[in-house]
Amino acid sequence: MMYASLKSIASYIPPICMHNTDFEKILDTSDEWITKRTGIKTRHFANASQQTSDLAYEAGKKAIERAGLSPNDIDALIVATLSPDYLTMPSTACVTAHKLGIENKAAFDISAACSGFIYLLSLAKAFIESGTFKHILIIGAEKVSSVLDFSDRSTCVLFGDGAGACVIGSTEDRNASIIDVHTSANGKHQDFICTPREHSAFGAQAKHTPSHLQMKGNETFKLAVKTLVSDVNDILHKNHIAPKDISFFIPHQANLRIINAVSENLSFNESQLVLSVQKYGNTSAASIPMAMNDIYEEKRLKYGDLMLLDAFGGGLTWGSALVHFGAKN
GO terms for molecular function, please (predicted)? Predict the structure, then answer.
């Protein structure tokens, strides 16, 4: 039987590193306050001249090279982002494909906020196992700084820019496969995390609203912990896998308090938990592949290692995945 497999991992970290102390100069905040509430110490921002597609290009190029492929071998490119180059079109995937030299192949974006990478895995798994495509490049890429209000200390200190990319191909080895992916959404709480349009209504009733990212932090925290614990328990139970069988638990890197609460509820130990939030902040759809790339480059991630991924984001969306690492080291 042919299975979908994660064949490579790569990331791109943009050049501007901003420490918590840098925010002390522009906001009524402190390194101690930010660290205590979020666990974040630094985050990286793109240059003004860089677009989301530029970040995606850097990560995608490296992922293709690490898979031992060329751009001509890629049959489809899918990008998950909440900060696209253009408002509605063309897609960031189309722009990125052009920059990578991927021509006349499928390319499109998805919008699932911080859950974007889990959604990408679900799509790629289906495309590969159905035989539709042979090699798919998936990229979570974000220039979140482009939608932040840097006078709002409740949001701007939380986020960073970056990109993470994977090539998904096929394998006959189940121990190198993407075992299962769960994705879910509920628009009831759409206002918990959102970026409103400039005008929220039409005609005479139209009113001007800011287009920056807005978030109800306390409400999001409570629902995220409850939802993620339930979803992870479901995927483990469905696949008859115990927490002790997981090599690495790689959650969406949003907030250290959320990560610790979920990890403790699920009984993962310190050696299983992967953390990068302290370095990069919340990079939305890019956070999971960026964290995965960290342990790959540290030579901790090996062929066949079983990773449990989970994420929760605007929509509201959430999801989890059980993924063996399928790249030969």
Answer: 3-oxoacyl-[acyl-carrier-protein] synthase activity; beta-ketoacyl-acyl-carrier-protein synthase III activity
